[in-house]
Amino acid sequence: MTQGRPLLNRRLAGFGTTIFAEMSALAVRTGAINLGQGFPDTDGPEEVREAAVRALRAGHGNQYPPGPGVPELRAAIAEHQQRFYDLALDPDTEVLVTAGATEAIAASMLALLEPGDEVIALEPYYDSYAACIAMAGATRVPVTLHPEPTTGTYRLDLAELRAAVTPRTRLLLLNTPHNPTGTVLTREELTAIAELACERDLLVVTDEVYEHLVFEGEHLPIAAFPGMRERTVTIGSAGKTFSFTGWKVGWVTANGPLVSAVRTAKQYLTYVSAGPFQYAVAEALRLPDSYFDGFRADLRRKRDLLADGLRAAGFEVYRPQGTYFITTDITPFGEKDAYAFCRALPERCGVVAIPNSVFYDDPDVSRSQVRFTFCKKDDVLHEATGRLSRLTS
Length: 393
Description:
This protein has about 400 residues and is α/β, with parallel strands linked by helices. The protein has helices spanning about 20-30, 45-60, 70-85, 100-110, 125-135, 160-165, 185-200, 240, 255-265, 275-285, 290-315, 340-350, 380-390; strands at about 35, 95-100, 120-125, 140-145, 145-150, 155, 170-175, 205, 230-235, 250-255, 315-320, 325-330, 350, 355, 370-375. Strands 2-10-9-8-7-3-4 form a 7-stranded mixed β-sheet, sandwiched between helices. A 4-stranded antiparallel β-sheet has the order 11-12-15-14. The chain has a two-stranded parallel sheet with strand order 1-13. The model has no long low-confidence stretch (mean pLDDT about 95).
């Protein structure tokens, strides 16, 4: 304590260590299989890794790269958006490279929000959303996705979303495909959200890092909907699509004034990062369709492998439409406290998972829900579900 004040800025009071750091440390300490934090246990395409090696050896990016990102990567990002979504972008003014999607989210919140603004975020939400909104001095307003027992998926209540908008609402923070529920927003839902944003003159920041991991439905960028091009900041990332999460290469695409605003904040965060890796990601984004199709098919198979194993072990399973996370419910075991369940699970079964309650403002909404990731080797998933079967033995 200094001068009677806490050392931590009051805006960050209550955030502390992330649940991912806590549970990953628990996995290391106990030797448990980590199905909590979402990182693959194998590297991505060899040709992409070799592209990074070539860049290092050629001296490409070993010194500070340009602040907006290397031109080769910005051009590849623009080509990617045109190729997959028919969105035309100027790579010089409408693309910004960031230190992963996490920095893109932080820079967007810091740039676009003022103290007193309200941000509507889909709940459950990725934990950095809450912290970044708080750092900007704004107020988070959750709109909760609700599970549908008949379909095993989560859905957005559009009436609830509309009711959450007030005169203080500045921004809608979307995430589709959605972490942790795996929900993929439909064309009808996105149309309604776009109409609401235009009607109430709202900005939209949309986190689409799982864009190539849609198993049912289709990924539709809201920036392509009528009236949304000039009010939408789209966030993408190489980590989830190419399985190089440690490279921390992400990006923002938007119209020029929005990118300029986000870049103003971003330049005082990392300034630049991942120089050689930017050249490699430029090559990755130009991989043929067969790569993206095969990647998605492989993760769909892993989803089904883990979902079936969890159900056989006794969990109630919500099968995701996208991402690489599965939400489960532990009430079939007579358990009600997911946090306590996850802290005890490494000793009980040698597996680490994440309690969904940490992604909600009101933890009672999901007190009995637990998230697992399936971006792991098949033998790891088989071993994990075998260990979890001990819960009913």
